[in-house]
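User: Fold this; tokens only.

Assistant: Input:
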Amino acid sequence: MKITENTDLEIVKAIREGLERTGGYCPCRLERTPENKCMCKEFRDQIKDKDFEGYCHCMLYYKSK
């Protein structure tokens, strides 16, 4: 398993700017809850799933098998 950033630098830049504006919360989520703090709970759960391969919700990170 490997976690990498999206190779599309424009997406990474936009998400990083959003994280800065929101104090580290996923800019794709409306609620500011601990579950939505980057790296969000949804993606942490996906990382635990050995069969999951793909991007996190906001497409900043990619998990490969």
